[in-house]
Specification:
This protein has helices at about 30-55, 55-60, 65-75, 80-85, 90-100, 105-115, 130-155, 165-190, 190-200, 205-210; strands at about 25, 200-205. By secondary structure, it is mostly helical. It has one domain: Fumarate Reductase Cytochrome B subunit (Up-down Bundle), CATH 1.20.950.20. A two-stranded antiparallel ribbon has the order 1-2.
């Protein structure tokens, strides 16, 4: 497997606690870069949207033309990190995982509907069912947002669709994306090990077994003998 920045840190880094020998690879460097770049572009897009949409912020920031330009280009560039990520075999492998629903994913959803949160009731592969649904939804939302944004930007692109309709869809979906992203960040905040895995690429084997038990059986997943027990 590809080495990560976390695996090349000095030996003294192990004294920080989570960075210790025996951790297993969860995300490659390319995957982490895609996630960070997409996150920053999404944040920039939402912040500039707020400055354009909310009157008090618009007055505070000013420079409406500049803010609008940054908003337009951050939206257009939003799919770029994922497109570049397709050059990475690890990224393509995780896309296949995200697009595949297994029996244990349906069990995870049934437990979520019943509000049963124990790991035994919510088996998961490298990504749980909620993460798979989130990834599919946010990918579709980004495409629709970019399409309606282009219709607003180039008013004569599709004459059959009015600019008013494009604005309505764009604004409604923007609010939905903002709420979903808040939920995504809240879940990440509640799981420090998951955040560490996205930051360094490696996670604790016990965490992987507890929260992503089926990951150990998936093609390309971490080998059991590397988990250190």
């Amino acid at each position: 497997m590809t080495s990560t920045a976390g695996s090349r840190e000095p030996t003294g880094a192990a004294t920080r606690g989570p960075e210790r020998p025996g951790r297993i690879l969860r995300f490659s460097r390319a995957e982490r870069l895609v996630h960070r770049a997409t996150g920053w572009l999404m944040l920039l897009c939402l912040l500039t949207a707020a400055c354009l949409y909310l009157g008090p912020l618009a007055q505070l920031v000013g420079r409406r033309h500049l803010v609008a330009t940054v908003h337009e280009w951050s939206g257009v560039l939003l799919p770029l990190p994922s497109l570049l990520g397709l050059l990475s075999p690890a990224f393509r492998a995780d896309l296949r995982r995200l697009n595949r629903f297994a029996g244990y994913d349906r069990q995870w959803l049934r437990a979520a509907r019943r509000r049963v949160a124990t790991p035994d009731a919510r088996p998961a592969g490298k990504f749980n069912a909620g993460q798979k649904i989130y990834a599919g939804w946010i990918a579709g939302a980004v495409l629709v947002m970019m399409f309606t944004g282009l219709l607003m930007w180039f008013t004569g692109l599709l004459p059959l669709i009015s600019r008013t309709s494009a604005i309505f869809v764009h604004d409604c979906l923007a609010w939905a994306v903002a709420l979903v992203l808040i939920g995504h960040m809240r879940k990440a905040y509640e799981d420090p090990e998951a955040r560490l895995g996205m930051r360094t690429g490696r996670v604790d084997p016990a965490w992987a077994v507890r929260h992503h038990s089926e990951w150990l059986e998936e093609d390309g997943g971490p080998r059991r003998r590397r988990t250190g027990g």
